[in-house]
From TrEMBL:
Residues 75-260 form the Extensin-like C-terminal domain. The chain crosses the membrane at residues 20-40. Pfam families: Extensin-like_C. Keywords: Membrane, Transmembrane, Transmembrane helix. This is Extensin.
Amino acid sequence: MAARRRKRNARAWRTGRRTIALAVWAVLLAGIVYGLYLFGRGHPEDLPWTKLDLAQPVGLFTRGKLVDLNDDYPQCRILMDRAGVAFEPAPAIAAEAGQCGYANGVRLLEAGARTTPFHPRSPPVQCQVAAAIALWEWHVVQPAARRHMKTSLAGYDQLGTYNCRRMYGRADGAWSEHATANAIDISGFRFADGRRVTLLQDWNGTGPDAAAKAAFLREVRDGACDLFATVLSPDYNAAHADHFHLDQADRGAMRGGACR
């Protein structure tokens, strides 16, 4: 009798221990889920399943959500409208060479929530690139201008968006994102106090404000990597010594980026 009683007590003790362990794990899991819920409410931009909102800060998954707009031109236009980004549709260009052309281009205007002009005038570009430019200006370029140049951004110098060509102008090989206006090349920046910064002269420049100009250029390059699928700078190769190449190439489910 005593032996059976000990066995029953041992089984009851093991059962009770398992029950307590399960209860503890349930409480921990509930705490984790609730913590994620609270985090998601406060930081929706850092969750992969929330919808993109251009009014939100730049988050961990903002770049991937921008790239997703490659396949959703109507939604891209809605997001730009909601954020107050003024633009006009760009006339479509029919396919050239079987690879080039675009139908979902826009031209950013100097009005609304962003008024910074391009020099030459704002070029036609795919909508997802335009949306990233707006975020880049608000969250990266303007703050960097104030931090390093002690003034505000007043303009961009650009080298173009659409060019029906393969990468590096080769006769064969992969097509450039410029072939579909899914890229823009930025060669310099203009500021409200009249100064200019160019990549060719100021990436590793000398003279007055050289350190501030170099720091500004590197900060806006690094910040662009959170918004564009591809960012190429003078650190990449000689072909990019005079400009940033920014594009929204779709690299598949993993949404890997190139930041160089």
